[in-house]
Specification:
The complex is a heterodimer. Chain A is built from no helices and 11 strands. Chain A is mostly beta strands. Classes of the chains: A mainly beta, B mainly beta. At the A-B interface, strand 4, strand 5 and strand 10 of A face strand 5 and strand 10 of B.
């Protein structure tokens, strides 16, 4: 158990809908990262927050957004969902904002029908 | 050209065999080199981490980096069925935050 928690475990929704994925980092970690894992693209970095502020952006679509709250938990919002958004979404956390070991949560499996 | 190339496998070997997993990369700015292990329905976990060319050993695992050839390897000795998982190479640029992953190699160790 990495200490990173993600909810929900599974999410099934329809095209055009909006969902929110939640992540709680390990105790003491200030950075939260979001990754998307799909069969064709592999594991792709989406976005990083450090202590409430956005720090780095990867291949995140405009339909996706994230935030980190004062208690350091983070939410990833996915809107206008398309079939191709079906994937595993992982949250990871680390102590600092430059490279430290990232600890991954168990992931949320999103299925868009 | 992809930044990272990793043979997706699947790779199936008998218990006790030596396993070699490999990745090539094209970005000269990569400074840190990692191997993650991902069991089915779980998040990736860090297995090995190094930042210099050469070998790094940890128990049955050896990570090898050749910066001049832009090639990294992970060797698993005396492989066990519990080593069955997907292995992902990962890279990071110094000062950056994001991990760049290979596609992952699915490994099965047969008892």
């Amino acid at each position: 158990d990495s200490g990173v928690t993600q909810t929900p475990k599974h999410l099934i929704t329809a095209t055009g809908q909006r969902v929110t994925l939640r992540c709680s980092p390990r105790s003491g970690d200030l950075s939260v990262y979001w990754y998307q894992q799909s069969l064709d693209q592999g594991l792709q970095f989406l976005i990083q927050y450090y202590n409430g502020e956005e720090r780095a952006k990867g291949n995140i679509l405009e339909r996706f957004s994230a935030q980190q709250f004062p208690d350091l938990h983070s939410e990833l919002n996915l809107s206008s969902l398309e079939l191709g958004d079906s994937a595993l979404y992982f949250c990871a956390s680390s102590v600092g904002d430059s490279y430290n070991e990232q600890f991954f949560g168990p992931g949320t499996r999103l299925t868009v029908l | 050209q992809k930044e990272v190339e990793q043979d997706p496998g699947p790779l199936s070997v008998p218990e006790g065999a030596i396993v070699s997993l490999n990745c090539t990369y094209s970005n000269s700015a990569f400074q840190y080199f990692m191997w993650y292990r991902q069991y089915s329905r779980k998040g990736p976990e860090l297995l090995m981490y190094t930042y210099s060319s050469g070998n790094k050993e940890d128990g049955r695992f050896t990570a090898q980096v050749d910066k001049s050839s832009k090639y990294i390897s992970l060797f698993i000795r005396d492989s066990q069925p519990s080593d069955s998982a997907t292995y992902l190479c990962a890279f990071i640029i110094q000062g950056a935050q994001k991990l760049v992953f290979g596609q992952g190699t699915r490994l099965t160790i047969n008892p």
